[in-house]
Amino acid sequence: MSSSAIKLIDIAANLADGMFKGIYNGKQCHVADIPAVLARAWSAGVDRIIVTGGSLEESKEALAIAETDGRLFCTVGVHPTRCKEFEESGDPEGHFQALLSLAKEGIEKGKVVAIGECGLDYDRLHFCPSETQKRYFEKQFELAEAVKLPMFLHMRAAAEDFCEIVARNKKRFTAGVAHSFTGSSEDRDRLLLFDNMFIGINGCSLKTIENLEVLRGIPIKRMMIETDSPYCEIRNTHAGIQYVKSVWPSKKKEKYEHDSPVKGRNEPCFVRQVLEVVAGCKGISDLDGLSKTLYHNTCRVFFPQDLDTAAEALLESGAVPNTQNC
């Protein structure tokens, strides 16, 4: 798949997930294949990938994966559905200190670029009660403040409590992205009131006509794109599929082939499809200009030291008007 001039950053890839080891529902179906997955991403125009950490152990694995390639980076944090691990450790403060130590190690290696994935998820309270989620969501702002990193955030069916906690801690973190956004127009507008908050879009954000209407109201200058792979693919039943142009023939996991994506398993190369849906939905014809704006949004938050100053000046001057103000 030729990438032309498109340059993309996938801000959310769960490369530590068992599916990338060939394991589905506890069964080994094919060999581990992260190198093949990454090769497809690079050839599709993906320039960098942020590997998601959702627990202390997963954050350690995310850092180890990130160290295998100069284009890989990661987050360190605890997902809301896993926040019971603080208390189950028997030493919540010790658990916090272990996260802090890991974050500092990863920063020194040039790999950890955000604290997260953290936030609130009231759709899955069977994994962790809301009070525990809120306690340790707030606690992780201490991590961001201590290491001066942005936050990689999760908000599901919890906008009111989420925004209240963010507002209370807004001076403790540099910037953030509410990733895999599936909320209402009211939720969107609440997030956009925070001037240091971006919204992450993936296949889960593009399922319904209502989702696309919400997307149209997100300014491009406040947006990032992602896959959240191996989850959140854009399916044929999704409203956004009408705008997808790039396709990769896939194989069922039982008939795995090294050179093909696995059917039903999302992977970073498909972030290009998210770009295409955003463009189609917003009526943007200049895919290259759109990708530049999204790329620089992402660099401003996660890679400020690597901003291309010439392109930055171009964007600041409003030279890409058909994407900057959509």
From TrEMBL:
SUPFAM superfamilies: Metallo-dependent hydrolases
Binding site for a divalent metal cation 2: H154, H179
Organism of derivation: Ananas comosus (Pineapple)
GO CC annotation terms, alphabetical: cytosol
UniProt-recorded name of the protein: Deoxyribonuclease TATDN1
UniProt keyword annotations, A-Z: Hydrolase, Metal-binding, Nuclease
Pfam families: TatD_DNase
Entry GO MF terms: 3'-5'-DNA exonuclease activity; metal ion binding
Similarity section: Belongs to the metallo-dependent hydrolases superfamily. TatD-type hydrolase family.
Gene name as annotated: LOC109712273
UniProt-listed PANTHER family: DEOXYRIBONUCLEASE TATDN1, TATD FAMILY DEOXYRIBONUCLEASE
Entry binding sites for a divalent metal cation 1: E117, D228
Regions that span the bilayer: none
